[in-house]
Amino acid sequence: MEILSFGVQADEKPLIEKAFEGHHDVRCLDVFLTEDTAPIAAGYEIITVSVNANLSSRVLQTLAAGGTQMIATRSTGFNHIDLAVAERLGLTVARVSYYSPYSVAEFAWTLAMAVNRRIVRASNRTRDFDFRLEGLMGRDMRGRTVGVLGTGKIGEAFTRIAHGFGMNLLGWDVAQNPACVELGMKYVDKEQLFAESDLVSLHVPLLPATQHIINAEVLAAMKDDAILVNSSRGGLIDTEALVAELRKGRFTGVGLDVYEAEAGLFFFDKSIQGVEDDVLARLLTFPNVVVTSHQAYYTLDALNQIIETTLQNVLDYQAGRRGENVLVPAAPETGA
């Protein structure tokens, strides 16, 4: 059987082909799954997709009509999939429930330190042989307070690094993580976390309850010199509200690896035609903001885990096994 994989980066292709070798042929496409590209999947029983795929109702209907029965998303998040429609159509949907939390946690800290120590500005200056230090002053992390919003596997890994810096640890989650408590984390309500933290890092999933969890009210309550980092999902932050606060000269720095309207932008080369997104364009003008294109997960270790799990999801589906990664099971067969 040949598997069709959408949205495969050039670095990923040899890893996917090697992992599937001996199991299935795999056709890797660099195009992402959208309404326009969904017809390509006609005749493929199993497809895999990336985090920026569009699996809306119309796309799912096109896939089902073309014979697709199983969708394996190469991501932990699944807010890009209309699960209710998938279930109604009898599609099986599986995700990667776990991969290296260190890839994202370490990158979140990379963003935090980049904005704190003005690394991008410093690098751009030295490339122009400008070796002045004015405007490059940062702050020690030791002794300052970090607020970790979401203390699952990634939040815990982020907290361990913060503990290594010697920071005061504040956390918020629906349930406390004993490992974080052992490190000295104090769980508080969101309001206290935002008001007292010098650095706020987001590690919660995007759900209706967390959509714009960082809104105008929250931003106003944060310290004027705080650092905000988001390596989770773009929809956690009301970007227009963030831009409004940045225009007031607030915040030491903002590091974003995700953006709420990133679909159709991130993972594409827009250097020639530019972007029509005025909010993103305005965001990129601030010297204390660093934006990267959803690359926190993008390490060799994490990609290998993601691909291996995706392969296992495919093999489980074919064997009739329902593993822990299944979000929507196959529709039960009906007989006379």
TrEMBL record:
Classification via Gene3D superfamilies: NAD(P)-binding Rossmann-like Domain (3.40.50.720)
Which Pfam families would you find in this protein's record? 2-Hacid_dh (PF00389), 2-Hacid_dh_C (PF02826)
Keywords (alphabetical) are:
NAD, Oxidoreductase
> Mind telling me which InterPro entries this protein's record contains?
D-isomer_2_OHA_DH_cat_dom (IPR006139), D-isomer_DH_CS (IPR029753), D-isomer_DH_CS1 (IPR029752), D-isomer_DH_NAD-bd (IPR006140), D-LDH-like (IPR058205), NAD(P)-bd_dom_sf (IPR036291)
Entry annotated with the keyword NAD: yes
Q: Which residues form the D-isomer specific 2-hydroxyacid dehydrogenase catalytic domain?
A: 8-327
Q: What's an example of a GO molecular-function annotation for this chain?
A: D-lactate dehydrogenase (NAD+) activity
Q: Where is the D-isomer specific 2-hydroxyacid dehydrogenase NAD-binding domain?
A: 110-296
State the family named in the UniProt similarity comment for this chain.
Answer: Belongs to the D-isomer specific 2-hydroxyacid dehydrogenase family.
Protein name (database record): D-lactate dehydrogenase
Recorded source organism is: Streptomyces indicus
